Amino acid sequence: MSEGHLPAFLHLAMRTGLELSPPTERQALLARVRAIQTRAEAEQYMRDVSQKLDAFRSGATTKP
Questions:
Q1: What is the pTM of this model?
Q2: Per-domain residue ranges for the chain?
């Protein structure tokens, strides 16, 4: 999956996801990131984190 800056963006998304998720979801989140094998999977994960961040910013959710 090492294409240019994609690993760096994936790492940033992972850190953001960890920050926005409760501690009980930490292991599942890390397992999901470790399982990413393709660019499409990485892009989907980053979209999911982006949606979570948008919800947090709009006040729909609170930081754990």
A1: 0.82
A2: 6-57
